[in-house]
Structure formats: C-alpha cells, structure tokens
Write a structure and sequence with these properties.
- The complex is a heterodimer of chains A (about 575) and B (about 250).
- Chain A is about 75% helix and about 0% strand.
- Chain A has helices spanning about 15-30, 35-65, 70-95, 115-125, 130-185, 190-215, 220-230, 235-245, 250-280, 295-300, 310-325, 330-360, 370-385, 390-395, 400-405, 410-440, 445-470, 490-515, 520-560; strands at about 95-100, 485.
- The longest helix of chain A is centred in the first third of the chain and has 56 residues, at about 130-185.
- In chain B, α3 (about 95-105) packs parallel to α5.
- The longest helix of chain B has 16 residues, at about 170-185.
- The chains are: A mainly alpha (about 575), B alpha/beta (about 250).
C-alpha cells in the first residue's frame, strides 16, 4: 500500500524475522570476503556436518528401512532424546554458541521483545549444526512414512520441526542464562557450583543407564523409552510412532508438550536476554576498598603465588592467575575442565566395567577395571585439560599488546602462562588421579594414574603452546563467555581435534607401558610420568617461545577482534 | 647520544590491508625534546603509522628507529626506551589500577620498591587513588586514558608515543594530562601523539605533521605549518573537507 510519507507519521514498517535472517547471512557473507582460509574452514565444517547428519539419518531411519516397528519408537526416543540432550549440554561444555548477531547490538533499536526473540531465534536456525540435525531427523520422517504411511509421516514432519526448534531454543536459553550468571559478581560462584552439580549428576545417570543396558531387558528398555517419549526430550520425535502403533490420540498431546516447552524456553531466553542487553547493570556494585598498605606490587600478587620473585616471570604468573579467575570466559573453561575431568573417567571406568561384566555373564560385586582402561581415561583427561590453552592468547585479545610493547621474551611468556594455568589445574588432576583408583577399589593404581595423567598434561601444554602461538584466533568482545565469531566454531573444533591427537600420541608411551609392564610400573609410573610431562612442557616452551619471538606482532593481529 | 639521533625516525613505512593501502610510505623525523603532534582525519593512517613505529604492527616496507635503535631489527633495546599508549586497544582491564601498574613495572624489569613508590605517586597525581580496587574494566573512559598514560610513564621512557590521548577525556582530566606531558617534555623527554583536536595541538606542540590518505601532507614546526592562518584552516585545506550547502538534509529541520 502506498502511504504518502508525511513528516509527522513516518511509516514504520514491521520488522520481521526475515530481516534478522538476511542480516545474519549478510554478516556471514562479509566475513568470508577475501578470506580463503575462512571459506575453506566453512566448507570443511559443512562436510563434517553432512557426514554426521548422514550417519545419524541412517541410524534413525533404520527401523523403517528394515521394517521393524518394534524398535522404531525406541530408536526415536533414545536417538532424539540424545540429540536434545546434546544441544543442551555441548554448547556449555565445549563448543559455545555462534553469536554472529550479538543481542547487545540491538539494545538501542525500537524493537519489541517478541520481535527481537523471534528474529534472533530465526537467525540462530541458520547454522551448519542445525542443517546437520535437520538431515538426521529426516531419517525419523522416512522411518515413520515407511511404517505408517502418509499420516505418520506428516506427524513426523511436524514433530521433527518442533524438536529442532526446541534444540536450538534450549541451547540459546541455557548459554544465555549461564552467561548472565557468570557475569554477575554476586551469583557467579553459585553458577559454577550449579554447573558442577549438574555434571556430577551426569555420572550416576550414566551408571544407571549402563546398568539398565547391561540387563538388556527389552521390556524394561521399552518402558524407559515410553517414559522419555512423554518428556520434552522425546515427545517431538515419538509422536509419529504413536500414530504407527495406532495410538493416534497421543500424537497431538505430544506435539502440544513440544510446543509448550518451546514457548517456555523462549520465554526464559527472553528474560535472560534482557539482562544481557542492559549489560553492566547486572554486574553489581564495584568493591571500592582502599588500596592495601602492602603497595601496588603486594596487592598485585595473589596469595597463592606470594612467594614468587617480584620480577618479570612473577608478574606474568600473577597476572595470569588473576585472569583465570576474574575473566568469565576463562573461568567457564576451568569449570569445564573440572566437570569433564571427574565425569569422563568415572563414566569410562565404571561403565566399561559394567559392559565387561555382562559379556562374561559373571556377577561379581565389583567390576573388572583394567589398568589399560584407567590409563587411557587418564590420558584423555590430561589431553582435555591442556587443550584449554590452545587459544590462550585469544583470551587476552588486544590487551596482549602490553606484552608486545614491553618486549617480553617468548620463552618466559609461555613458561609463565603454563605455570599459572597449572596452579589451577594440577591440584585438580591430582585429585582426579587419586579419586578414580580409590573409587575403583584399586588404590595401588594411584601412581600409574597420576603419572599417566601428568605426562599427558605436560605433553598437552607443549603441543598447545605451539598451537596458541601459530593459530590463536580472536574472540568477540561480548560479555557472553560462550560466544564465538562466525566460522570460529569449525576452526576451533579442528584445532582442538588436531592438538588432542598429537598430544595423545606424544603421551601414549605411558599407556603402552601400563599395558605391557606390571607390578613395579604401577608406582614407577609416577616419577617417570612427572618427569616426562615436565620435560615435554619445558621443551615445548623452549621451542615455541622461539617461534613466538619472531611472531609477536602477527599474533597480536590474529587475536585482535576485527571491527 | 640524544643529540646524535632523532627521538623517532621513520623511513618509507608502508602498510596495506587486503586491497586497501592504509599507509603509503611515511618519512618522519621527530627531534629529541620536541612535542610532536600527528594530525589527520579519521582513517588517515595515524594509528597504523604509530603501531608500526612502536613495534606492534609489522610494516610491509620501511624501517623505524627509536633514538637510533632499529625497532624491527633490535626490538628489545628500542622498546626499553619507549612508552606507548595505544588507542582502541584494551588494557589488561581485569586488574585494578594499582595491580595494572605493578604488572607493567615488573614487566619492564623495574625494582619492586621503585614500582610501589612510582605507582602510588602516579595514582595520586592522576586522581585515581579513590578508585581503590575497582577493576579497570569498570573505569570511565577518561580514567582508562589516565591509567593507560600512567602505564606508559611508569618506567621513565625517553620517548612517549600516545595514540589519541585526549579522546573521550573530560576537560579536567585533559588539563591534567597536558600538564604532565608538558613537564615530561621540559624534563628532556620527547612526546609524539596523534589527535584531531586542533586546539590542543596548537597549544601544546612544537612540531606538527599532517597525515591524510596514508601520506604526510605537511610537516615542520608549528609556525612553519600554519603560517599566518589558523591550524584548523590549514588542516581543512590540506585534507579537502566539504562544506554543507544547506540543500541536503532538509528534513532535519522541522
């Protein structure tokens, strides 16, 4: 309609979700302009997404393809439930969320909350993982269509679409809520504890699940699947298979559950988004205590490193120590390490023991953990803990310029960063390597576990020092510790993968020794592993430091966010 | 030694980003003991030039010397003589003001006792003592500039390179910064700073260079550059600004 534009009533056109989608596509496109490396990474990301999507597609479509309606509902409930769970947990623990459109940028625009949420939500749907997941759940639609004809397929389409929306909404809402909590000074420690508790709960759930699978009782499994099917985790995916089984009345109810959950989650997201947009208001009053009588230098050194010499090395360590705690992004990483460090070995060893037991149909009270399995899980924890520093310069961003201007020698810089990070992580690793053998009822393995863990960690420090010097990338300067730049997700995943493989290979001799030798090795492993890890870390700092000396300005340019 | 070498010498510095030439060959000699203003409109290449001069950004071509020390061949010795306050770059802002100063001082290899004493003095002079343990990230823009200046001054450099030191600073703080810089120059130091505030440059500087489109358009002592006109007139003439005709943006007036 052609409305004559009068100065008093400028025709305000409605802002639709399409605007946000186009904006996101435009920002992504501009990011690629003239950046061959980014385009290549994006293509790799798409291929990886297609691969996983296709595999999951086959898995979810399998019951339909082989004509087994008995398993169809179960596959939908477990597979779909896993998908939702993954979207809920993985962004928090590892991957972050793609925040190409930073909500804070919209704070000044006259947009209603509803418009903003719908728009950001629609924009969030434009991403490789979503398309991979779309491909995967198409398998469910195929399966439902083959088993139940057109009506079931139609329900499956609606359910799958709803389920995907739920996945994306959940990942946004949860990261946004945690970002808000981690930002605010008052409750950030509470948030950390909460995350840890959630993670601690995962362990028992996993154990219970493996115990259930071990019993391999199809009726009981079907029962669990039915229950999951009625929760938001399974409802969107299983609705179609109720139609297949002739319980057509259940389908609309399950779709309703899905829709209501999406609504609730979006409402939750909009609440936390509002505080994210207002930003500083939630950070609480600053502590304005008067300077300590100890003077600037005394105040600067945290008590943990109070004995350190007041020189360049000491200053670097002290600053890194302060940063690992005060920077929300770094703290979130530390929490992840703590969570994964406890969760993974418990899961692998207790769960693995369970599997072994069922296959041997013996029914002893304890499982049958092996030194090899414990060694491998320790290796994995060490690798995961050290991978955090793969982008250690990216955490600093442009502030790293201070070190460049002061001309800090590369080796000193890397050694100091390793030291400060280890002050937080090594105690945790020690706890893990004592805790796991004790829980397994094999306290004699503490030496082997600790040695392997510290060796892997030391190798990881060395490998990741190289990666941080050569391939750090900038992080967006938002207050959301989970936010990443467009395309950085793929780059990050590839780098993490590369560094983990190299580290694991470097530390593998420890595990091989654990498998081949016995008796004496169980305790000899501790001094050997510590020496191995320490040597590797120092050698890494020595070699990578040399590279850093030649690359300081380039590194600064890499970690400085583009504006 | 100070007499032999200019405080800062640039020869043929050039930098290109993707397809855009940011700096296209800059030659500059900053005499020791001068108060040097680098003028230019937004996007002229001021920050790029200064970044290359202090070792933060590797130039495509050209060299830079600080008091005779080659910045890119022997960065350690050149950087020891330098104090830098970059613009648009974050400080390690999750430290308090005192902590940040302690970090910078120790990083420069200073004695802890001297760091303590100078940090207290600087915080006091710059009126930042009241901020106490407030983190620098929570400072106002003007306070951030002041703590940045303190970090650059702490180790008593011979040459101070400041990028936009008066941007976003309130008049009281600006006067304070001016006083400190003037005392520093009187005491034998050299200051190079970039700005587009003509009034400040005219009041402070002994020498001026006007940078536009990545090259130096005018250079010399303040009097040589401005002649009998005001600096602003010279600047606009050199840079080639446009003046509004009154026809466009008619809808702004109701």
């Amino acid at each position: 309609m052609a409305v004559p534009v009068t100065p008093d009533h400028p025709a305000a056109r409605r802002v639709s979700a399409g605007h946000f989608v186009r904006l996101k596509l435009r920002v992504m496109g501009n990011n690629f302009r003239g950046q061959g490396r980014r385009i290549a990474l994006f293509v790799v990301g798409v291929l990886v997404g297609l691969w996983f999507g296709a595999m999951a597609f086959l898995g979810l479509a399998a019951p339909g393809l082989v004509g087994e309606p008995r398993y169809a509902g179960m596959v939908a409930a477990f597979g779909g439930g896993l998908l939702v769970f993954g979207w809920l947990v993985l962004p928090l623990a590892f991957f972050g969320v793609d925040e190409t459109l930073d909500p804070a940028r919209f704070a000044l625009l006259p947009l209603s909350r509803r418009t903003l949420i719908t728009g950001l939500f629609a924009a969030a749907l434009i991403s490789v993982p979503v398309f991979a997941a779309l491909l995967a759940v198409a398998g469910l639609v195929l399966s439902a269509g083959l088993l139940g004809g057109v009506p079931a397929a139609l329900v499956a389409v609606v359910g799958a679409a709803g389920g995907l929306l739920l996945c994306v909404a959940l990942s946004r809402a949860v990261t946004s809520a945690f970002a808000t909590m981690l930002r605010s000074r008052r409750v950030r420690d509470l948030a950390a504890v909460l995350l840890a508790v959630v993670a601690a709960l995962l362990g028992p759930i996993q154990i219970a699940a493996t115990a259930a699978i071990r019993d391999a009782d199809w009726d009981r499994l079907a029962g669990v699947a039915t229950v999951i099917g009625w929760t938001p985790f399974g409802a969107p995916w299983t609705a179609a298979f109720d139609v297949v089984d002739g319980r057509a009345w259940a389908a609309p109810v399950k779709l309703l559950i899905t829709a209501a959950t999406i609504g609730l989650v979006l409402w939750w997201w909009s609440r936390s988004l509002e505080s994210a947009m207002v930003g500083a208001a939630s950070s609480g009053p600053a502590k304005a205590r008067r300077g300590a009588p100890a003077g600037a230098v005394g105040e600067f050194f945290p008590r943990v490193v109070g004995r350190l010499r007041r020189d360049r090395f000491g200053a670097l360590v002290a600053r890194e120590c302060r940063y690992w705690w005060r920077d929300a992004r770094r703290r979130a990483n530390l929490i992840s390490i703590a969570v994964v460090g406890v969760f993974v070995p418990v899961m692998v060893n207790l769960g693995g023991g369970g599997f072994r037991m069922s296959s041997e149909d013996g029914f002893t009270a304890t499982g049958d953990p092996s030194p090899l399995l414990v060694g491998l899980s320790m290796l994995f924890v060490g690798v995961l803990a050290s991978v955090t520093i793969a982008n250690q310069f990216g955490f600093d961003g442009s502030a790293y310029a201070a070190n460049v201007v002061a001309g800090v020698p590369g080796r000193l810089e890397l050694r100091a960063r390793m030291t400060a990070f280890s002050l937080y992580v090594v105690p945790l690793l020690v706890v893990v390597s004592v805790l796991i053998p004790v829980v397994l009822g094999e306290p004699g393995w503490i030496g082997m576990a600790g040695g392997t863990l510290l060796a892997a960690y030391g190798c990881g420090l060395a490998v990741n020092s190289f990666i941080s010097v050569l391939a750090s990338y900038s992080l967006p300067e938002t207050s959301n510790p989970f936010a990443m730049n467009t395309g950085a997700g793929v780059a990050r995943s590839l780098l993490v993968l590369l560094s983990m493989v190299v580290t694991a290979v470097a530390a593998l001799p420890m595990v091989v020794a654990a498998a081949l030798l016995d008796g004496g090795w169980l305790w000899l492993a501790l001094p050997v592993g510590v020496a191995y890890g320490l040597g590797a870390a120092l050698l890494g700092a020595y070699l990578a430091g040399d590279v850093l000396d030649r690359r300081q300005p380039e590194l600064l340019a890499m970690v400085t966010p583009r504006r | 030694m100070t007499g032999e070498h200019p405080a800062l010498a640039l020869r043929g510095l050039a930098k290109r980003f993707d397809s855009k030439v940011a700096v296209a060959g800059v030659d500059l000699d900053v005499p020791a003991g001068s108060f040097y203003g680098l003028l230019g409109p937004n996007g002229a290449g001021k920050t790029t030039t200064l970044s290359m001069a202090v070792g933060l950004l590797r130039p495509d071509h050209g060299r830079a010397w600080v008091l005779g020390q080659d910045v890119w061949a022997d960065p350690v010795r050149a950087k020891a003589l330098l104090g830098v306050m970059p613009d648009g770059i974050r400080l390690f802002d999750r430290l308090s003001g005192a902590e940040l100063l302690a970090y910078h001082g120790l990083l420069r290899g200073m004695d802890p006792a001297v760091v303590d004493q100078r940090a207290a003095e600087l915080l006091d002079v710059l009126a930042l003592t009241d901020a106490g343990r407030t983190l620098v990230v929570d400072y106002s823009a003007g306070m951030k500039k002041k703590i940045g200046l303190a970090c650059a001054l702490l180790h008593g450099p011979r040459l101070l390179v400041l990028d936009e030191p008066f941007e976003a600073v309130d008049p009281v703080s600006a006067a304070l910064i001016r006083d400190i810089l003037q005392r520093y120059v009187t005491g034998g130091g050299t200051v190079v700073f970039s700005s587009h505030v003509m009034e400040v440059v005219e009041r402070l500087c002994s020498h001026v260079a006007i940078l536009a489109d990545g090259i130096i358009k005018r250079v010399g002592t303040l009097d040589e550059v401005r002649g009998d006109r005001s600096l602003e007139q010279v600047f606009v003439a050199v840079v080639g600004g446009r003046t509004a005709t009154g026809e466009e943006l008619a809808w702004l007036s109701r």
